[in-house]
Each structure stands twice: as C-alpha cells, then as structure tokens.
Amino acid sequence: MSGNGRAIYIAGAGIAGLTLALALAKFGATVVILERNKAVQEFGAGLQISPNARRVLNQLGLDRQIAAKSLEPSGIDVFPFRAKRPLTTLVLGKAMVERYDAPYVVMHRADLADVLYRACKRFANIEIAFGVRAFDAVSHARGVSVTADEADGKSRGARAFAFVGADGVNSATRVNLLGGPESSYSGFVAWRTTIPMASLQGAIAPDRTTLLFAPGYHAVCYPLPHRKQVNIALFARERAEAAFGPKPPKAPTLPWAMLPSPRFEIITRAAKDAWGYWPMSTVTTTEWHQGAIGLVGDAAHAMLPFQAQGAAMAIEDAAILAPLLMTEPDAASAFARFAALRQARVEKVRKLSNANGFAFHLEWPFTLGRDAVIALQGPHGHFQRLDWLYNYHAAPESAIAGPKRSESPNPTP
Ligand SMILES: Cc1cc2nc3c(=O)[nH]c(=O)nc-3n(C[C@H](O)[C@H](O)[C@H](O)COP(=O)(O)OP(=O)(O)OC[C@H]3O[C@@H](n4cnc5c(N)ncnc54)[C@H](O)[C@@H]3O)c2cc1C
To answer: 15 alpha carbon to ligand 1 midpoint, in Å?
Structure first.
C-alpha cells in the first residue's frame, strides 16, 4: 500500500499519539502531532506493559529498544494485609512468552516515551509541533480544516484527511470539538514514587512485582533495575473535596494506618515525602467521533489503572485505527469501524479494572473469601482468566508492519 497522500493531525504526543503516529507513518501517511508541552513528557513513574500491547510495539519494530530498558518480572507476589509471606506468586516471565508470544514487562514511563519519540524522529513524514497553545478542527464532507496556535506565536492552518484527539483524560478534542463529557473523578487517588532498591530492606523481591492489599488501599511495586529504583504506586479511596483540596497532602494518609503493616511502613519511610499525588478521573462515552474528528486512548476511554491496561488500550487503539484511516474511503467510516471494533473490549477491560479495585481494597472478613479464591486459583490461575485480554492481536502482522519500503528510516511521504 502506498502513502496515498493522506495527512493526519493528532493532538497529543503521549503514548496514544506517538504510537498512532508511528503506525500511520509506516503506511506512508503524513502525520502532524500538536503537543502542548515543550517536549515529550511522561509524568508519574512506572508502567506495566502486558503482551497484548507489547505485541503491537514489537510489530512497530521496537522490541529491542523496549527490552533494553525494561524488566520481565518472573512473577507477582500477592500479599494480603500484614501477611508475612505471599498468598501466591502469579507466574509471569517465560511462561508469558510461551503462552502469548510476547513478554510482560515493567519499565519507566519516560523510557517508553523516549523509545516512541526516537522512533518517530526517524520518520521524515512525522512532524511534532511542541508548545502548541490551542487548536481547532472543523470537519467537512471531504476531510477536516485544522488551525493551531504555535509556540512562536504563529498560527498554522491546514486541510487534512482526519484529526485524532490523543490528548488524554481531559481531552480538549473530546470536550471542545466533539461536545463530549468532561472527565469524572473516580473516587480514588494514586500516590506514585520511585525509591532506591537498597532502601527497601528486602521488603520487595528484586525480580518480581509485589501487590500489597490493605483495607481501603493497595500498592503495586516493581523494580526498575536500569534505574536501580523501585516503582511504587499506592492507591486509596478519597472523597472529592479532599482529593481536590487547596493543599494536596505531601504523603499518603491511609485508612487503617494505625494497624502496623511492616511492608507499608518500610515503603512510606523510604519514600519520605517524595510522592507524586494523582486524583484519578475516568471517561465514559460512546461518542468517539464526529465526521473526520475522532478520539483514541484516555481521551476516549480513560479507566482506573487496577488492571494496568490504560496505556495498553491506547497502544491497541493505535494499531487498529491506523490501517483503517489508511484504507477506508473517508475518515468518518474509519472512525465508525474503529468504534465498532473497540468499544466492547474497552468496556470489558474497564469493568475488570473496577472489579479489581473493589477486591483489592476489601476489609475483613470479606478478605477471607477473596484470599481463598486467589489461593485456589494458584500461580497459573490468571492465565485462563485473562487469556481474552493478553491473547488479543490488535493487528495482523501484515496490517501494522506496513509496506516493506517504509521499514527503512526516513521514508519520504
Ligand atoms: C497511577 C497510574 C498507573 C498506571 N499504570 C498503568 C500501567 O501499568 N499500564 C498501563 O497500560 N496503563 C497504566 N496507566 C494508564 C496510562 O497511564 C494511561 O492510560 C496512558 O498514559 C494514556 O495515554 P494517552 O496518550 O491516551 O494520554 P496521556 O498520557 O495523558 O497523553 C496525552 C498527551 O496529550 C497532551 N495534551 C493534552 N491536552 C492537550 C492540548 N490541549 N493540546 C495539545 N496537547 C495536549 C499531553 O501533554 C500529553 O502529552 C496508569 C495510570 C495511572 C494514573
């Protein structure tokens, strides 16, 4: 397939926007990303990348770069509140590759963003405009008119085949251009930090992910050996008034904190006040497009991160939308087919994430039932339960790998 002269504008150089740009560029599209920040920036800390997403990244030719900056944990140690030993260790590592043909890895967000950005820079047909102050897009019968106020004060205007909002949970594309809903507060906040491995005093295995349950909160911890650090994400329920109060707290104030819990104590002592604070919002809408303007990633479907799938869904989105935008006769039908292919799966993942949030935060005696089920399912129980999630092939090899010609760096548009 040739680059058929299609120009696609994307708002946002996050994981969704950069992955979509790469997938489109492989087909020879002319891609312009409008990013409000002055550089590619990934806030927060670590990211788990499951095989369904990793497969797409591999198809985009990024396998080696990701392997160089990530860890394949051998398993997930699951600790009920105050337990001395894990209830179970869910097997990952080689078993994931054998079953799903792609590894399950953890890495720093900034490292993934860097891999994607460097890959984009190798394509002459991807332009990233940083520091964009505002943009507008109007859909016509034959495409879309785009205007953007750029960092240098100049204004750009262009006609394009499609405009894609990959501008995150508070997407201006969704709210301003499509008249869609604002995001809504989820009732949960996240606390994120990275701390030196050495300061954790053996509380966390150096080659595995650790999942700590507690009444009303939970934590996910995994090593980032390339940075000699451990990523900690701690999640707790919080009322909206407190979550968005005038002065965000410096460190987590946890329900049930009066009960001693050695692992949480070691973590909070090691982290001191170096936490990032994140009230988490979600987006639920089925209006993912109007005419030639559409949404991907968190802009379309931000969800709670309790199955670690938000970025994975954004990556899958990119793999599915790119070939549609290059082959459908017009952008509206590409977006309509995209929504039809994606919405049921995204909703299923959202429900699973919500259910995990409920289970992870249970209080005694309900924890007894939860822990009995986890123990009964055993170290391989998650395979059958999550085959539908991890075994999903977002794009057949031929679709996303693009034409041979574009596999060399800097193909001309
Ligand atoms: C605590 C936590 C842990 C998580 N862990 C995982 C995990 O382990 N695995 C996983 O798969 N997912 C995880 N997620 C979810 C994941 O972080 C998101 O789903 C993912 O980052 C969404 O990517 P995105 O590109 O759609 O949006 P974003 O990452 O938000 O990127 C949006 C981009 O658009 C830009 N932008 C915004 N507005 C404008 C504008 N008006 N003009 C121009 N540019 C604009 C932003 O600057 C940004 O660059 C986690 C989320 C949280 C909160």
So the answer is: 7
> Is residue 85 in a domain?
no
CATH number where 62 lies: 3.50.50.60
HEC assignment per residue over the chain: CCCCCCEEEEECCCHHHHHHHHHHHHCCCEEEEECCCCCCCCCCCEEEECHHHHHHHHHCCCHHHHHHHEECCCEEEEECCCCCCCCEEEECHHHHHHHHCCCCEEEEHHHHHHHHHHHHHCCCCEEEECCCCEEEEEEECCEEEEEEECCCCCEEEEEECEEEECCCCCCHHHHHHCCCCCCEEEEEEEEEEEEEHHHHCCCCCCCCEEEEEECCEEEEEEEEHHHCEEEEEEEEECCHHHHCCCCCCCCCCCCCCCCCCHHHHHHHHHHCCCCEEEEEEECCCCCCEECCEEECCHHHHCCCCCCCCHHHHHHHHHHHHHHHHHHCCCHHHHHHHHHHHHHHHHHHHHHHHHHHHHHHCCCCCHHHHHHHHHHHHCCCHHHHHHHHHHCCCCCCHHHHHCCHHHHCCCCCC
Structural domain of 168:
7-70+108-183+282-360
Query: Among 35, 43, 167, which is best to mutate for testing ligand 1, by the most ligand atoms less than 8 A from CB?
Result: 167
Ligand 1 midpoint to CA 212 (Å): 24
| Res 45: pLDDT | 83
Check pocket membership of 288 for ligand 1, CB cut-off 6 A.
no
Q: Look at ligand 1, atom 37, and give the residue with the nearest C-alpha.
A: 167
Would 90 be classed as within a structural domain? no
Q: Is residue 217 part of a domain?
A: no
Instruction: Give the per-residue pLDDT at 396.
Output: 61
pLDDT below 70 — which residues of the chain? 1-3, 44, 396-413
pLDDT at 399: 59
pTM, to two decimals:
0.95
Q: What are 303-356's pLDDT values in tens digits? A: 999 999 999 999 999 999 999 999 999 999 999 999 999 999 999 999 999 999
Domain assignment present for 51: yes
Domain count, the chain: 1
- Summarised one tens digit per residue, pLDDT across range 69-128 is 999 999 999 999 999 999 999 999 999 999 999 999 999 999 999 999 999 999 999 999
CA of 11 to the centre of ligand 1 (A): 12
